[in-house]
Amino acid sequence: MLFFVWGVSLHAQNADPDKEKKEDEKVYFPLYNGLIVSADIYGLGANVLGGDFLSGEVAIEANLKNRFFPVVEVGYGTTDTYSDRGTHYKSSAPYFRIGMNYNTMYKKGNPNYLYAGFRYGYTSFSYDAISTPAEDPIFGGSLENPSLTDDVWGGSVPFAHKGLKAGMGWLELLVGVRAHIYKNFYMGWSVRYKCSMSVSLSDYGVPWYVPGYGEYDSNCFGLGYSLIYKLPF
């Protein structure tokens, strides 16, 4: 009996109080932790400040274990602008993305967190590409567009293609932060790297702008600024 009491006392002395405290401080999350809706308004602000594109999107995501956030994003992008070569380009269409965010701070149970993620995006759209004549500054009237010439036969090469069809799928890799503002309200920022995966084009020329992606002829970076609300269920 004496040895038993001595052994229990020794175990109690050797217990690590810091370890037990850490165990008590751990935050455990159930599988489902609610739904989150957000609106990305960066595209609206960029257009107001003089950008060539106008876009807006909404997203809904589920919080699983405060660690994985499967997400669906739906948006609409449009442009109506002139290039420096005198071409009038016009396009507008919806787009969507699906993917996942991963909360790198899930163990802390902090409402502010840093995340990384991926998206697959797709859009099917139509566009107009029209060469426009240049104004004659001396005699008035219009001139042939000097920047759209036939390299073989010479002369202007006017064109007016409307309703051209195209489709594009792309991959996005992103990092972002989310900050708690008040109660169920948050705001967030993200940076995305986008690369084309699949394309179907018209026989009459490539598009300049792809809704949801940006300029067609390059891999590109995108920025996002979102207003976020965590639903109370």
Description:
The chain has 233 residues and is mainly β. The chain has a single domain, classed as Porin (Beta Barrel). 12% of the residues lie in helices and 56% in strands. The protein is built from 3 helices and 12 strands. The protein has helices spanning 2-14, 17-25, 42-48; strands at 32-40, 53-64, 68-82, 87-103, 113-131, 134-135, 142-143, 160-182, 185-200, 209-210, 214-215, 220-230. An 8-stranded antiparallel beta barrel has the order 1-2-3-4-5-8-9-12. A two-stranded antiparallel ribbon has the order 6-7. It has a two-stranded antiparallel ribbon with strand order 10-11. A hairpin with a 3-residue loop joins strand 2 and strand 3. The longest helix has 13 residues, at 2-14. The chain is elongated and about 80 Å long. The termini are far apart.
How are the secondary structure elements laid out?
Elements: H1 2-14, H2 17-25, E1 32-40, H3 42-48, E2 53-64, E3 68-82, E4 87-103, E5 113-131, E6 134-135, E7 142-143, E8 160-182, E9 185-200, E10 209-210, E11 214-215, E12 220-230
Antiparallel strand pairs: 1-2, 1-12, 2-3, 3-4, 4-5, 5-8, 6-7, 8-9, 9-12, 10-11
